[in-house]
Amino acid sequence: MRNIYNILNTRSSLSCSDFQECSKLSAIHFGLPSITHLSMESKIERQLLCNLVEKSINAFEHRLNFINVDFTHYDSLKKEAKLSLKAEYNEDDIVLNLILKISIWEFIVYE
Known about the structure:
Blueprint: H1 2-8, H2 16-21, H3 43-60, E1 64-75, E2 80-89, E3 92-101, E4 106-110
Antiparallel strand pairs: 1-2, 2-3, 3-4
Domain IraD/Gp25-like: 2-86
Protein name: IraD/Gp25-like domain-containing protein
Organism: Silvanigrella paludirubra
């Protein structure tokens, strides 16, 4: 969980489009690109957020396989987006919940 937290709360030097197009991310690109311009009201941008989270975890957390991230809820009053991360770890299925605190653009990771 700590590694997921570190990945998602470190900002990559790449833009969202460059991050998506990069076929081989390295340690120099560690993290998630800046997502401050994304609107949680937009279905397309919510899907983009999920894709970026999946790609960053795939690239930088090699112990997880078959990663799938879904956008589950957006609370506009609390300014929180909730995502669900499902993956395989040592042949066991795991589910982690992610909360994106939009006021500070920080992810919280919990089971």
